Amino acid sequence: MNKQVICIVCPKGCKVLVSEENGVYTTTGNACNRGNIYGIQEAIEPKRMLTSTVKINGALHQRCPVVSSGPIKKELIMEALKVLETISLSAPVTIEQIICHNICDSGVDILVSRTMGKTNDL
After folding, report:
1. Residue 25 to residue 43: CA distance in whole angstroms
2. Under a CB-based contact definition with an 8 Å cutoff, are residues 83 and 109 in contact?
3. Using CA atoms, how far apart are residues 116 and 91, in angstroms rounded to an integer?
4. Can you give the residue ranges of every domain in the chain?
5. How far is the C-alpha of 120 from the C-alpha of 43, rounded, in Å?
6. How far apart are CA 14 and CA 35, in angstroms?
7. pLDDT in tens, 57-89
């Protein structure tokens, strides 16, 4: 198995070729070890941070920004977004408040990424 990925760990954007032989992964083209780690992870099980918004009632804005507490499997992103569509918060909420534990059985929580007070508190 050979897979080429562009490393996004730093601005260099190395073209990393990941090769697998008998369960052993190697990389070429990466300028540093971070590219090695990223390339292998991307080839085996790609993961992404999830940022989105959810409905919020009683706040100045109608949507509240949220973020995952860590990267989740790329294949779960669309399913997680569908879960977030069903969530409706009530103000006030605080930054880093957990609004969804273990989304899609990923082991990752969804956190509020902006404190939002009640409309009458503003």
Report:
1. 9
2. no
3. 6
4. 2-44, 51-121
5. 50
6. 7
7. 999 999 999 999 999 999 999 999 999 999 999
The pair of three-digit structure tokens given for residue 118, joined into one six-digit string? 């009640």
Residue 87 Cα to chain centre, angstroms: 18
Query: Which residues are paired to 72 by β-bridges?
Result: 48
Q: Report DSSP state, residue 59.
A: S
Cis amide linkage into residue 11, ω under 30° from 0: no
Q: Of the candidates 19, 27, 16, 24, which has an alpha carbon nearest to the alpha carbon of residue 1? A: 19
- The reported pLDDT for the residue numbered 1 is 84
Q: Tell me which CATH code domain 51-121 carries.
A: 3.10.530.10
pLDDT tens figures, 38-50: 999 999 999 999 9
